[in-house]
Amino acid sequence: MEGVTSQRRGTELLAHAARSDELDLTIFVPCRDEEGNVARSLDEVVETLKHYEFTYEIIVVDDASKDGSVAEIDRFMKDHPGVNIQLKKNPQPLGVSYNLNDAAMLGRGRYFQFLSSSFQNRRESLQTTFNELGSADIVITSMTPDLRAWHRRRLSRLYTRLVNAVSGYDMPHYHGTPIFRRIDVVRWHSYRTVGFYADMITCLLDEGVSYVVVPTPCHEREKGKSHALRIGNVISLLVGFADMLLRRFSKDRILPTRLPSRRERAQGCPGKLDF
Fold this sequence. Notes:
Order of helices and strands: HEHEHEHEHEHEHHEHEHE
Low-confidence stretches: 271-275
Radius of gyration: 18 Å
Distance between the termini: 28 Å
Strand order of the largest sheet: 3-2-1-4-6-5-7-8-9
Structural class: alpha/beta
CATH topology: Spore Coat Polysaccharide Biosynthesis Protein SpsA, Chain A
């Protein structure tokens, strides 16, 4: 399950990972006040993975939930004793990007994926990304179709345009459920409170990684609400844009390589150097 790589930096890290990684995939599931959603999300992941032969682990990080999320996760773990799943409980909220980095450090998989606990990623989107495991350094997901509320779709499109304009890249999305090499997450993790995916993806593209792009449906959450629109998050985005702009004009980039997805390869589509 070894992905094809371009002339990227960090090949010695990949060689180290090849020697040390014990599993194929680490799945990180962050949770904060997702009672009624988190067990359904975990069940969707586990049921989908029954159709694949690769080895995996699930790391759930509860970020000081105040509802019954932890009890719900505990019940799920008790009901699924054969699933390789662990729960890390934070005594106070630390944020998704902080917890993502912790999960990457704790994980043992060659590849790493962040899946929401809000039950927005259903089986069809999970299958699309799992099918591409090992095909490139990054599986970039385009939220297509995007079934969220219209204002969330408009904000997402605006954000993608801004990231592309600042970074100089041309990605269809910087959200969704991308798959990274776990060693790359450890090495190139982002300190942004929000916008960490765009920060990580553009940084890795600067390193000359290979990637594929696949469409993945994104559903509206059925319970609870998003807390993305906060003043601190807006500040984080602005700082992230400044970082991207600085990297764009001060760093010797290696061209990333877009590879055809497995579906595209079946249709005879070639890969290419981008930008």
